[in-house]
């Protein structure tokens, strides 16, 4: 039997708005890779080695996480257990624009431009005619 739609709507509403402040053991992380079985490899801004985190049951099959997306991770969730998990996903960041406005958003996770930067030293050829071949006319005459 399918889950009631109210559970889906409650989960979506919960993940739409950022909290006013983060707890000490919570951190924003970028998803690097889906490891399978609701496990994800994420990277924190201040650490070089990735963390293996688990997606809790309330998010499974309701909210999808894409590679390069952001999640809120509780790093103290599995400290008392002896396993390979480093934390648990507390929230999936869907409205990234709203989260970026918060003071706790890491500076390391800057918004990347979708277009390649044009270098300033090259002249733009937009709206101009192609160069004429005056040198060819001089050589024939």
Description:
The protein has 141 residues and is α+β, with helices and mostly antiparallel strands. Helices cover 17% and strands 23% of the residues. The chain is built from three helices and five strands, in the order αβββββαα. It has helices at residues 5-16, 96-100, 134-140, and strands at residues 26-36, 39-43, 51-54, 70-74, 87-93. Strands 1-2-3-5-4 form a five-stranded mixed beta barrel. The longest helix has 12 residues, at 5-16. The model has no long low-confidence stretch (mean pLDDT 81).
Give the SSE map.
Elements: H1 5-16, E1 26-36, E2 39-43, E3 51-54, E4 70-74, E5 87-93, H2 96-100, H3 134-140
Parallel strand pairs: 3-5
Antiparallel strand pairs: 1-2, 1-4, 2-3, 4-5
Which terms would index this structure?
141 residues, alpha+beta, five-stranded mixed beta barrel, 5 strands
Number of β-strand runs: 5
* Biggest β-sheet strands, sense, barrel: 5 strands, mixed, barrel
Radius of gyration from the CA trace?
24 Å
Mean residue pLDDT? 81
Taking the alpha carbons of the first and last residues, their distance comes to 86 Å
Offer a quick outline of the entry:
The chain has 141 residues and is an alpha+beta fold. The protein contains 3 helices and 5 strands, in the order αβββββαα.
């Amino acid at each position: 039997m399918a889950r009631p739609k109210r559970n889906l709507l409650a989960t979506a509403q919960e993940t739409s708005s950022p909290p006013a402040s983060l707890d000490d053991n919570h951190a924003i992380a970028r998803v690097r890779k889906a490891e399978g079985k609701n496990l994800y490899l994420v990277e924190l801004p201040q650490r070089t080695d990735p963390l293996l985190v688990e997606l809790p049951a309330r998010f499974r099959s309701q909210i999808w996480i894409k590679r390069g997306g952001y999640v809120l991770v509780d790093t103290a969730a599995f400290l008392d257990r002896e396993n390979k998990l480093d934390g648990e996903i507390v929230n999936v960041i869907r409205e990234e624009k709203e989260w970026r406005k918060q003071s706790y958003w890491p500076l390391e996770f800057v918004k990347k431009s979708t277009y390649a930067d044009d270098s300033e030293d090259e002249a733009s050829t937009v709206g101009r005619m192609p160069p004429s071949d005056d040198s060819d006319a001089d050589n024939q005459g």
